[in-house]
Amino acid sequence: SYLTSFYLPPDKQRVSDALSREFPNFLVIDTGAMITQVQGIIEQISQTISVVFLFTLFSGIAVLYAALLATQDERTHEAAILRTLGASGAYIRKLHLSEFAVLGALSGLLAAFGAALLGWVLARFVLEIPYQLNPMVWLIGVFGGMAVVMLAAWLTTRRLTELPPLVILRE
User: Fold this and answer.
1) I want to staple 100 with a disulfide (CB 3.0 to 4.6 A). Which of 45, 58, 135, 153 is the partner?
2) How many domains does the chain have?
3) Would you say residue 64 lies in a domain?
């Protein structure tokens, strides 16, 4: 048996059909159709991974929000003490936002490290292709983590300075 390959433009498909009829043992494999099918499968896998990623992201945000709500009483008490000592509401908000900015940056850095490590493992051991580090993963991880954590913190701590300190400290 022999094996060969050649390019046949799509408008010449009738030549391939005629060859198959004339020579029954002649096998024509349309690699273009195979590549299109593989690309479709890869696209579906990518979409599935994206959906799983979004569910994971929203779950993480929900856990973060719940954790912030769980510590809200402590933060309210801390803010009341700071206000009693003369701190302004703007200072307390900046203090909390800077704390959460650092926490978000560290979380994003850890997430970017995990994503890069997982990408390297998949590229090296599963796909057996060279891994190429993407710096955008690190930038998006750090700044995205900061933004998400700061937003969640702002939503849970924006009312810390509304009540008078005396009312909070008596509770």
Assistant:
1) 153
2) 2
3) no
